[in-house]
Amino acid sequence: MNENIQLIESFIDYMWSNFSLSKNTLDAYQSDITKLYQFHQKNITTFKEQEITNYLTKSKLSLSSQRRALSSFRGFFLYLEEQKQIKNNPCQYIKPPKVNKTIPETLTFIEVKKILDAPDISTTNGLRDRAMFELMYACGLRVSELVSLTSNQVNIYNENILIKGKGNKERILPIAITTLEILTNYKDNARKKLEKVKSPYFFLSQKGGAMSRHNFWHMIKKYATQCGIIKNISPHTLRHAFATHLVQNGANLRSVQLLLGHSDISTTQIYTHIHNIRLQKQHKEHHPRG
């Protein structure tokens, strides 16, 4: 095996065994570092600072992707330094590019309701889709949390779900009665039809396996188009709507942070900006001196 590939894989194994990172995070690390190696095609232990900055500027990555890649490189070269494969971390003095926080486009409650009502719940797939949309909007889940949800994490009797978020941090979220009814209907009917073989996952694909993030994204885009919604739809559209609507209705920002599973409240504060922008728009449209 190529020595560079061996070093990358040993780093990924180290991160997995020591930090309990998610598969998606580990895959991102591996992809970032492999692309750097493929770009220069040389022994990875001989990389210099200039070669890394050259890659970042010439790779046509977005600023946020450059920041993520640099974070991957820093961790990797720090690992090589600790393993005495290199003497100095070439990323040590590279500053990440500054990224302005973008405010996600969010849906109104009426638009959310259109998407929630779009699936035909008389069909197996439609009932599953409705249950996924309901739960994501009711609890503000990340897509990765939604598709990886197991049946053991859904406690219909106690009206809550156990979520294992980023860094394996756990949080328990309440489920509203209307959402519980849809989940129970899905569990007792559609899920039994989808489960070809025994599966721990709560939401199942047509083939009986776990739903993928990619499939969920296509699913929500399809229903949004059917509803005539022309806004930019992302996999986290319903999560953004959950947070925005809570803030609009007076929820405490700290509570929203805990519900979303944000480690830093500054990440949650973007939803207050969305609310303020809407207030400004309403004032301009309806106030005599707006």
Automatic annotation (TrEMBL):
PROSITE patterns: CB, TYR_RECOMBINASE. GO terms for biological process: cell division; chromosome segregation; DNA recombination. It is found in: Cytoplasm. Residues 102-284 form the Tyr recombinase domain. It holds the Pfam family Phage_integrase. The keyword Plastid does not apply. Keywords: Cell cycle, Cell division, Chromosome partition, Cytoplasm, DNA integration, DNA recombination, DNA-binding. The keyword Mitochondrion does not apply. HAMAP family: Recomb_XerC_XerD. NCBIfam families: PRK00283.1, recomb_XerA_Arch, recomb_XerD. Belongs to the 'phage' integrase family. XerD subfamily. This is Tyrosine recombinase XerD. It comes from hydrothermal vent metagenome.
